[in-house]
Write a structure and sequence with these properties.
Helix 1 runs antiparallel to helix 2, helix 8 packs across helix 9 and helix 12 packs across helix 13. It contains 22 helices and 27 strands. The protein is globular and about 80 Å long. With 652 residues, the protein is an alpha/beta fold. It folds into 3 domains: 260 residues, ANL, N-terminal domain (Rossmann fold, 3-Layer(aba) Sandwich); 165 residues, no CATH class; 179 residues, ANL, C-terminal domain (GMP Synthetase, Chain A, domain 3, 2-Layer Sandwich).
Length: 652
């Protein structure tokens, strides 16, 4: 692969290289109707060529943008590369976004061409057409339900493909010339930020930035064309795009697209990925499923699980890092692997995982240790859309639960006096599209990107991220207040799905809690506790007691950390509804919009700090079909026990 590597400076050139060098090896697989379908690199390149010629026939030109909206599918990735062949810029959009959310990116980028996966996505694009007059061509992959649609400019993917094949046969030199025009400094893709704090921004990344960072990490981990990856997260998210597009184009490994979100676990067990990525929320959900299964297990299995997980927590991570462990502990761990860890890795679909990453937001130390104790080489990764993901990675043997590792080769890091992290890297974005002011604010004249994250280096040179600079603050007594750190500790418990901590400038910390309906529902059924739905379940005394125990365990842990011991949670309430992206409470990447939530539920925040025992709330919610409704509830507020440092140690 290293031969002629300098000339392989764009993704289309890399694709043609793989078609020549490993044409018979699998490039991408898709599960359809229960059967895995495979495209070799040669077949995938042929598809991209035909599609690129078809798009050229329909008028897509160099420098223009093309929207892609759908789940992970071979044709989504083929369309991405086809647009790049012509010098156009693909813009993946979140498939679960409401129609109105798609309007801004399409307007902002003046998009004329869009590929939609199915009828649902086509309907969204048709709905916003009056707001998006530039959108002239909509291509669809799945024709089900679209037979009688007569909208001008609406065309089947297969028809576009046939048009392209005919054009390719007439003039194959045209596309070769277009691909050859491409340069590493050209824009390769545009990803819109999640809009946590305002209007989304289009992040323009070049071929060079994406390829350079993908290659640096691949060389660090020894990735090759024999690796296998599951592509199950939104293609519009830069993390998934790196693992399912940039790195396979660099290394030649195969990606696998699951049949649906509901079959991910089954599909993962079938393909056995060797390289895996999951944000903390996915790992939290998997742990919740494990906890539920153990609740349902017999007494002997529960005893074995508790016994050997104790061994795993003590020595599993040490064994993974190659550290010295006593012969007795090695024997106990081997026995545990036979009876517990091995079967559990198989259930999780991680039996063959050689390298696993987690990123997107901070992961709770306990959650992180759980997976590593099972023998899964889970490591933390730090990066962002603007940095092409790979900024810091934990090297093998140097994995810590509270850091994200040292800088990846080629990356420079430093801090401002306010502890904001600055990054200089070959993977930095080119610009925020049509937003020069935001570009200047984020990337200074010396090429340093201002991340907005607060942190510091530990004695080994590993980066430790505390929180967002704007979110890190102080309580009234000067105690460090890092809300995300507290929220992640709460979310380690399977019964807590989401948490929002408050305390900036106040005398104490209070929190909103979202229970995990599946985990708590299973817990309630085991105790013959009837309930009629989420609101009813969340209001039960027994559930409040369950959550209180979780909060107090977090407080006991916090009391042992001197810098934040006074950040223990004094009061909490369980929200009457699940925080939802459709209600603008979360971003599409499932990050809490803390400021928006605090403003929307200001009455509840005030009640927490006013010493009230209950508060009435009415909230408007948006359903999947677009309808709105109102939820009304009386929420109770509970106090939680806090600990002095010495008392916490005794309690532990």
């Amino acid at each position: 692969m290293k031969a002629g590597i300098g000339s392989l400076d764009t993704f289309p050139k890399l694709l043609l290289h793989h078609a020549r060098a490993r044409g018979a090896l699998p490039a991408i697989r898709e599960k359809d109707l229960g059967i895995w379908q495979t495209w070799t690199w040669h077949e995938f390149a042929d598809e991209v060529r035909a599609l690129a010629c078809g798009l050229a026939e329909r008028g897509l030109k160099r420098g223009e943008h093309m929207a892609l909206v759908g789940d992970n599918r071979p044709r989504i990735y083929a369309a991405m590369c086809a647009a790049q062949c012509l010098g156009a810029i693909p813009v993946p959009l979140y498939q679960d976004a409401a129609a109105a959310e798609m309007a801004f990116p399409i307007q902002n980028a003046e998009i004329a061409h869009a590929l939609a996966e199915d009828q649902e996505q086509v309907d969204k694009l048709l709905e916003i057409l009056p707001k998006c007059p530039t959108l002239e061509h909509i291509y669809y992959d799945d024709p089900r339900g679209l037979r009688y649609y007569a909208q001008p400019g609406l065309e089947a993917y297969d028809a576009l493909l046939e048009l392209g094949r005919a054009a390719w046969r007439r003039d194959p030199a045209f596309l070769e010339a277009e691909i050859e025009k491409g340069r590493g400094e050209d824009a390769a893709a545009m990803f819109f930020t999640s809009g946590t704090t305002g209007t989304p921004k289009g992040v323009v990344l070049t071929h060079h930035a994406l390829i350079d960072r993908a290659r640096a990490a691949a060389e660090m981990e020894g990735l090759s064309d024999r690796d296998v990856v599951l592509a199950y997260l939104p293609p519009a998210w830069i993390g998934q795009n790196i693992f399912s597009y940039a790195q396979p184009f660099v290394t030649g490994y195969c990606i696998c697209c699951p049949e649906s979100a509901e079959t991910v676990m089954t599909d993962m067990r079938e393909i056995g990925p060797t390289y895996y990525f999951a944000p903390p929320r996915v790992l939290e959900a998997l742990l919740t499923q494990v906890s539920i299964r153990m609740e349902d297990a017999g007494a002997v299995k529960r005893w074995l699980y508790r016994k050997f997980m104790g061994v795993a927590r003590r020595v599993g991570g040490m064994l993974l890092d190659g550290k010295r462990v006593s012969a007795l502990d090695r024997l106990l761990y081997w026995l545990g692997d036979l009876l517990v860890y091995g079967p559990l890795r198989n259930v999780l679909g991680m039996s063959r995982v050689r390298v696993a990453y987690t990123a997107g937001e901070a992961i709770g130390p306990d959650l992180f240790k759980f997976y590593r104790s099972l023998g899964i080489n889970l490591k933390q990764l730090y990066g962002s859309t603007e940095t092409s993901v790979f900024v810091c990675v934990q090297p093998n043997g140097q994995v810590k639960p509270d850091t994200v590792g040292p800088a990846v080769p080629g990356v420079e890091l430093k801090f401002t006096p306010e502890r904001e992290l600055l990054i200089r890297s070959p993977g930095l974005f080119k610009e925020y599209y049509k937003n020069p002011q935001a570009t200047l604010e984020a990337k200074d004249q010396e090429g340093w990107f201002h991340t907005g994250d607060a942190g510091y280096f530990d004695p080994d040179g590993h980066l430790k991220i505390i929180d967002r600079v704007k979110d890190v603050g102080q309580l009234a007594d000067g105690t460090l207040f890092a809300p995300k750190y507290l929220e992640n500790k709460l979310k380690f418990f399977p019964y807590i799905q989401e948490a929002v901590a408050f305390g900036q400038g106040r005398d104490r910390v209070c929190a909103f809690i979202n229970i995990d309906a599946e985990a708590v529902g299973n817990w309630a059924e085991k105790r013959n506790m009837p309930y009629s739905g989420y609101v009813d379940l969340a209001s039960r005394d027994e559930v409040y007691e369950l959550v209180r125990e979780c909060v107090e365990q977090v407080n006991a842990d916090l009391a042992q950390e001197p810098e934040i011991a006074n950040s223990q949670i004094h009061r909490f309430l369980i929200l009457h509804k699940v925080l939802d992206a459709d209600d603008e409470e979360l971003t599409r990447t499932r990050k809490v919009r803390r400021g928006f939530v605090a403003q929307k539920y200001a009455t509840l925040v005030d009640a927490l700090y006013a010493g009230k025992q209950s508060v009435h709330v009415e909230a408007q919610v948006k359903y999947e079909d677009g309808r709105t409704g109102t939820i009304s509830a009386d929420l109770r507020i509970h106090d939680a026990k806090t600990f002095r440092a010495d008392a916490a140690k005794r309690a532990a």
